[in-house]
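Predict structure. Chain length: 379.
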Amino acid sequence: MIYNAERGDISIAVGGDAMITRRMSAFNEPNFLNLIDILKKADVSVVNLEMLFHDYESSWQWTDTTYTRSDPRNLADLKWMGVDAVTTANNHSFDFSEGGFLTTLSHCKDFDLPAAGGGLDIDQARAPVYVDSAKGRVAVMSATSTFSEQSRAGAGRPDFPGRPGVNALRHEVVHYVKRDVFEALHKANQELGYEGLATAKREFGFRGNEKPIDPSSQVDFLDNRFVLGEEFGVRTSVNESDMSGIGNWIRGAQKQADWTIYGFHCHESGQTGEFHGLNRLTPPEFLVDFAHWTIDQGCALFAGHGPHLLRGIEIYKGMPIFYSLGNFIFQNESVLRLPDEAYRRFGLGYDQTPGDYLDTRSGSGTRAFAGNPVFWQSV
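Prediction complete.
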């Protein structure tokens, strides 16, 4: 044996969402320092960077959640904590448009923090970043199923540039309904004019090679697909084109690294389990399928995050799948600035400050993230 990597005994620490807005090196509680010790002793440590690092150079996008921004110097504290690489594909990546995201990637590079999941085009977004350790080289890759269309990276052509953004994994949702509901949806679609509008769009030609639906068993209504079934149900499936492109990069990473791990951001939920906030405890069907598929492609670990709560752990073919690791750092209530529309949504005006807004949104700590202990549990 020449290299330590041949032993196959690497230790990899993974954490959930890092929404960091404060300096972490100021804290010295024993339990916190024990956590830092775990990260530093691991051969490689990776977390999801659900925060943008900029100085408000770029315009903001409309959102009904938090406008994420942190001082770029806080990246140094992630390094101090022992974080070796981050994933960046998530629903907050474009809170401050393309410029805010690319500025964040630039700051990660400045602080020597490899960042997976985004780039100047779809191939950069799908490509791995690498961490070299004494126990082997680790490829880190990342994607998200929760994203805005503006944030989805696109491919370039020889005569046209690609689109900067995140590695987005699209998925299809099909709703199964019984006949009485199916017929009612058909009637509503016709009477409200949506069916005629869809026909006009197809005939006009701009929609491309769109596969027609069978009206005897399917109806598209208000951007949702409904299928005639024996029972009510919802099925989800991964977009095959996106998965194929991701698979190309996983295959390539296998040839250049000793270990490959995949980080995945997913706010979507399954159909069972209790709600906490906007999410159920169970993962959606497509997430389970995709996680299994990444392991089948050769990944050694799948690290899920997104709903800000813990979901189950599965050992699949001997490899760990974390369907959601919850929050690693959750400083969602200490962002420094917010746009006017956020204040207006809660009936607040120019006399109010970010502290007033955040206190109002959480009901003085009695609701939303601040009021539910589930969001403050992690592994």
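Summary: The chain is about 25% helix and 25% strand.
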